[in-house]
Amino acid sequence: MARMVNKISVDAPESEKVVWNALRVGLPEPWAVIHSLNYVAQSGQKRREGEVDFLLIHPKVGIIALEAKGDAEVRNGPEGWAFKNHKGEWRKGKSPFEQASTGARELNTFLSKEAPELGKVPFGHGVVFPSFTEEGSRGPEAPREIIIDREQLSDIESCVKKIIKRFDLKADFTPEQIKKIIKKFTSYKISKRSLKQVVDDTNQEILDLSESQFEILSLLSNQTRAIIEGPAGSGKTILAIECARRKLQEGKKVLLLCFNELLGKHLKETFFDDDNIWAGSFHEFCQEMAREAGLEIVNEIDQIDTKTEEAKSRFWQIDLPESLPDAIYKNEKTYDALIIDEAQDFTVDWIKTLEHCLGDLKEDPFFLFLDQKQKFEGQDWESPWSKQKPYPLTENWRCSEPIAEKVRSIWGEETTSKGPASELKPEWVEAETDDGIIERAIECALSLFIEEELEPSQIVVLTGNTALRDELKNGPLGDKKFRVETVRRYKGLDAEVVVLVLPEESKPVDPKIAYVGMSRARALLRVVGPKSKRKDLNFGGKK
User: Fold this and answer.
1) What are 124-172's pLDDT values in tens digits?
2) Which SS3 state, helix, strand or coil, does residue 189 take?
3) What would the pLDDT profile of 308-338 be if each residue is shown by its tens digit?
4) β-bridge pairing 416-417 and 337-340
5) How large is the C-alpha radius of gyration of the chain?
């Protein structure tokens, strides 16, 4: 068996534990394996932190850096690399092959400086996909020989031999020299992780959370009607997506709807390559069905901008939804399962209207996911099925523990945090004057980008009103392609980092806006506002 230089942490992703054990059992002596080696690469004034998941060391071979990706599916194309976790969610990311080669190159540079007497140390790299079987290569940077998949883990030594052959790795180190190499790497410690590293690590831990979150879906598998209610962070959207995915696997034709346009876009992108599901916003669905059926109401859709505000409201609330049954009938288009996310924004009449979309009203499943605390306008939500008791969600899966605790401490929610512990506590960013709120918000977002090296795509700046949003968006944040949105439009979505901008001194904090806005953050939360608002949201000292 290989010599495992360090123990794997109990907090390590399950996928890395699988790879660690495969290396331990499958590689013979004198292979030595180091798990999770953090390093710092310095290029001029620029400092970059990185990590190699596994470092394999052999006296007759040299060193191999392995990157492990536990995702359920990976794809690369014109728009870059994308990774699908075990909840069915896609995220964009860096090439794992580039990560592996970069790690190997930078560790080689480190070793040549720290131990020049060793001479040239051969380095190779590879990528492990322990959750799926790989069919072929991934392009010029990723030949099949440097890929290890789920089926190959049982014979990982053969895979390592292919990597050795690919890079023509040959060495002749003495046992003492191997000890020196291991000592150089294991004594190399980063004193403090960068904020970006902590954000990235926290976010990955959230994405890798246990699938026990999906247990409720198993309980509902034989139900035809179900209401699933839970607070922000309880994973309602994730559950709705997983529910849709399971119904698709059963061979059903699925309709997945929400209210918000942005969330609808996210749902559509999640299932963009599946023809057996229609996913998106309710009003978009109504419009598409009306156009497909050739209904006269299409003329009103095209002329909506000419209507009064009262007429517009009646059109979206009543006229367009009431056209749906006729459109469904004319299109001869029905579905085998209907799922609504953010159902607190749907009226009883809308839900009753949507029942016309089911092929079999009595037997086809119809699930509602909702949080009544996130209903901003109109009357309190009314259940369409008075005898149907909601299934409660009481665990926060989306936010790190400090963020979940902050939300819970303010609104007194009886929830349990399932998110990872984190050193990143929610922070208050104080604006001295009303005019300074905009300035401080811009300063806060830009510092995360410039000083902390976070990507604009990792950050969302949220406000309570469109005027404040537009003012922020039309400045340097818009130029840098930051996401700037109102809290209402961002319901149902989340981000690694949230900068929540509160209103000026004279305007009160809307509890629902604050509740929804703060709970969008997965790893880092900063709230910008005047001093008087700090106590309202239970924040401590001035930043």
Assistant:
1) 999 999 999 988 778 888 899 999 999 999 999 999 999 999 999 999 9
2) coil
3) 999 999 999 999 999 999 999 999 999 999 9
4) unpaired
5) 26
Do domains 211-394 and 401-536 share one topology? The answer is: yes
d(CA 20, CA 17): 5
Q: Which two tokens stand for residue 156?
A: 């990982």
* 506 Cβ contact list (under 8 Å, min separation 6): 434
CB 200 within 8 A of CB 189: no
Distance CA 399, CA 383 (A): 28
CATH number, domain 401-536: 3.40.50.300
CATH level 3 topology of 211-394: Rossmann fold (3.40.50)
Q: pTM value?
A: 0.63
Give which of 500, 517, 515, 521 is closest to 429, Cα–Cα: 500
Contact 538/529 with Cβ under 8 angstroms? no
SS3 (DSSP) at 107: helix
Task: Answer whether CATH 3.40.1350 is correct for domain 3-189.
Answer: yes
Residue 402 DSSP symbol: H
What token pair was written down for 423? 């050193």
Three-state DSSP class for 180? helix
DSSP conformation class of 9 = P
Ranges of each domain in the chain = 3-189, 211-394, 401-536
Q: What DSSP string runs through 370-400?
A: E-GGG--SSSPP--S-TT-PPEE--EE-SS-
